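To: structure subgroup
Subject: Chain for Friday's discussion

All,

I'm putting the inputs and outputs inline so they're searchable in the archive.
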Amino acid sequence: MARGRVERFAGDDSAAEPAFIEAVRSLADAGARADLADALDELAVSAARRNQPGRAARLLGAAEAERARLGAVKISWAGLPDTDEVLTTIGKALGDELEAEIEAGRAMSLDEAVHLALRGKGGRRRSTSGWESLTPAESEVVRLVSEGMTNPRIAEKLLITSGTVKAHLSHIFTKLGIGSRSELAAEAARRDVTDSS
């Protein structure tokens, strides 16, 4: 993130964008959600400058929604484009469609937003279903479910909300084609996912 901001401050957006793409990959894998929202904002700037207003609007919406879920506040950096600048630029291109595109971004899951940010950028090639499709955070939730932990206990252990645990479980059930927590625990035990890495 710092490298990308230095490049952008120096006016070299072609060097800034790859740094922000690398940041999105690393932050997504690390589960650093507040910083990831900032990286999505930075890639929205790049998309706006490359005349991709719809993509920019969706990235802004996704970043805004993630900060709202976290109760986080966006920090503006002096000398760098802020959200208002980007909105002005893409608003001219999108017109009445601006709010619909931003709302589409707000409706995305964080994984979907990461996929959008990395699409065509050599991003992660994670499957969309099956055990290999689980994110690191989802895999950790599976491990804790297999240990018999409740949602509140998982939330406490992972320093997230119970609602986020519930959302992870919903995604896990969909990806694995599993319908219940007990079925998930049984399948996880069969696969021996209890060892944490």
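Points worth raising on Friday:
The domain at 131-191 is CATH 1.10.10.10 (Arc Repressor Mutant, subunit A).
DSSP finds eleven helices and no strands in the chain.

D.
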